[in-house]
Amino acid sequence: MKAAVAAGYSVVAMDVFADTDTMQAAEQVYKIEYANSGFDALQFEAAFAQIDMQDMVGFAYGSGFEAQPDLLARISKSLPLIGNCADTVRKLKDAPSFFKTLDDLLIPHPEVCFSPLENATGWLRKEEGGSGGMHVQAASANQSLPQGQYYQRTIEGSPISMLFAANGEELKVVGFNQQWVAPITGKPYRYGGIVGHANLSADIKHSLEATALKITRAFNLRGLNSLDVICQDSQYWVLEINPRLSSTLDLYQTEESNLFALHLQAVAGDLSSFPVIPTKSKARNVFYASHDLVIPENLAWPEWVADIPLPLTLIPQHQPVCTILAESDDANASQALVLSRVTILSALLND
User: Fold this and answer.
1) 169 lies in some domain
2) Which of 46, 113, 163, 262 is the most exposed place for a label (fewest CB within 10 A)?
């Protein structure tokens, strides 16, 4: 949303958090409740119907729609989608179909299973279209799977993502990122943070780019997308494609190099103009409440905090409070800095 505003667009935002950053940047903000791994569809559509769409360029979307491609399809009847079409999202988040396509393309991925496991050791249970890692659980033996869930074999390694722009036939890489988790009891893969310009070998980078190109052509990917993999030295296994705007955009966005403009051009099929990517490494870390937390009314937030909640907001235990930012010369230094700031903010909030 901030990238769209920086590109010169007026924005109407529909958001689960409706934090102060969003309130300040957008012309209008609709707060939508979270439900079923995405937005509350009925509430979303009721709010969407109130918007004056006369001068709207289109609908740009981030997380919250992978589990609800039908909602995206309904939106597309009123506004052009600035991103992948609903059918592309549906196909990518249909786990049996997606992993079969990877097999057909000879792309490595962790073993998956769609029926009860006799021995669940070393397996995870995941939701199609889930995001943020909260949906990833240890698998249980002889347990039937609800619709929209699947089992995936655990592979130890580093979680890596690649942000790229695609036009259906070609792509250009924006950057490679390394993620980390913030585990709590029962949710060992809860998303923690991410750092840009990850320290990867040239061979791995080349392999991931080639893999993303195969997937781009198989699914006609458009705009900015991200490829998620697990890496072990020179090996990698594809976990998923996020076929929408990602928070990793902020790792490479600058005033001079606007990635939302790149997204628009790529959706339209044009990759001829590519921004200069900053060389410094940025990091982002989600700050979670360790207990129920009421945001102080007159708190002086550090300048390295984003997604700031409104004063007196009650944040339930284990829910996101805000995002901590850092920037340094390389990925290791940037990650160390952002993690050190977690301790500082915890003390400031008495969390």
Assistant:
1) no
2) 46
Is there a contact between 16 and 35 (Cβ–Cβ < 8 Å)? no
> Looking at the domain assignment, is residue 123 inside a domain?
no
Domain that holds residue 30: 2-91
Instruction: Give the number of domains in the chain.
Output: 2
Helix (H) or strand (E) holding 184: none
| Distance of alpha carbon 224 from alpha carbon 267, whole angstroms | 8
d(CA 260, CA 6): 9
Which of 45, 64, 91 finishes a domain? 91
What pLDDT, on the 0 to 100 scale, is given for residue 259? 96
pLDDT value of position 129: 83
Q: Does residue 295 lie in a domain region?
A: yes
Neighbours of 291 (CB within 10 A): 10
Specify the DSSP element, H or E, that contains 206: helix 202-219
Res 135: pLDDT = 81
- Distance (Å, whole) CA 82 – CA 107: 28
Show the DSSP H helices in 78-201 as ranges: 86-92, 95-104
On whether residue 52 sits in a domain, the answer given is yes
Report the SS3 class of residue 340.
helix
Query: What residues have CB less than 8 Å from 133, skipping those under 6 apart?
Result: 181, 187, 189, 190, 191
CB 96 within 8 A of CB 114: yes
Tell me the average pLDDT of the chain.
94
In angstroms and rounded to an integer, the radius of gyration of the C-alpha atoms of the chain is 20
Model pLDDT for residues 284-322, shown as the tens digit of each residue? 999 999 999 999 999 999 999 999 999 999 999 999 999
pTM: 0.96
